[in-house]
Amino acid sequence: MTETRLKISLAHLYPELLNIYGDFGNVLTIKQRCEWRNIDIEITNINIGDKIDPEIFDFYFIGGGQDKQQIEVSRELQLQKNALHDAMNSGAVALGICGGYQLFGHYYQPHNGARLLGIGLLDAYTVAGDKRFIGNVTAKTEFTVPKTLVGFENHSGLTYLQGDTKPLAMVETGAGNNSRDKTEGARFKNIFGTYLHGPFLPKNPHFTDFLIKLALEKRYRDNIELQKLNDELELQAHISLINKLY
Ligand code: GLN
Question: Whole-structure pTM over 0.85, yes or no?
Fold first, then answer.
């Protein structure tokens, strides 16, 4: 009897518009860490005008970008709002990076021009500040072991969390959400946002696996234990960034 292979269906949202600082590398990391475990992964690019069917996807990814690209994606996301809320309520996993993260909230108010509407997956809002935060970040999360998350931030947006939306992590070095309350990123249900570029996931293999496990458990409605991988190289990259900052 052939053993049925596990599978994940991933929607990459607006890769031609929101893919700054190599954020596409996050999708490649999820793909590779699935393939190393013989987990099938189907990746669908969702571009402007494409309709999202929440029944199909277990995982959604959206990268970061400049204000200009966010304007177009903000408009398009309003057409997908109900589908993405249905996805969230079905337990689907989503990861938004920086500009994409901002649009998971209620709105992003840039320096100039009109407020960009988000889709309210996260109870959060973002207002552009006077300072641009650029640099390496280390933070501590409660969702994985090890607890450390590392990455690179480049944003002027100041994000504030409300209600049941909790921080992804607490910053130890860097600005994080707003450089004031020491929070970094956000989580509500299986919706995650972070300011960490790099790309984020290659240097945080433990967090990548945490998201893959959540997506598989959403699809199969069962507890799934992932096969351990040799993460020696990935963790050397992870630790090298921590050592650089301390
Ligand atoms: N334009 C947004 C900001 O400056 C997001 C930038 C990004 O995605 N790196 O905050």
Answer: yes
Pairing of strands 107-109, 169-173: unpaired
- Report how far Cα 180 is from the mean position of its chain's Cα atoms: 22
Under 8 Å between Cβ of 59 and 9: yes
12 is catalytic: no
Query: pLDDT (tens digit, 9 = 90+) per residue, 107-130?
Result: 999 999 899 999 999 999 999 999
Ligand 1: residues within 6 Å at CB? 20, 64-67, 70, 98-99, 154-157
For the chain, helix, strand, coil in percent to 5 are 30, 30, 40
- Long-range interactions of 142-149: CB distance < 8 A, separation 24+: 142/169, 143/168, 143/187, 143/207, 143/210, 144/206, 144/207, 144/210, 145/206, 146/206, 148/238, 148/242, 149/184, 149/194, 149/196, 149/200, 149/204, 149/207
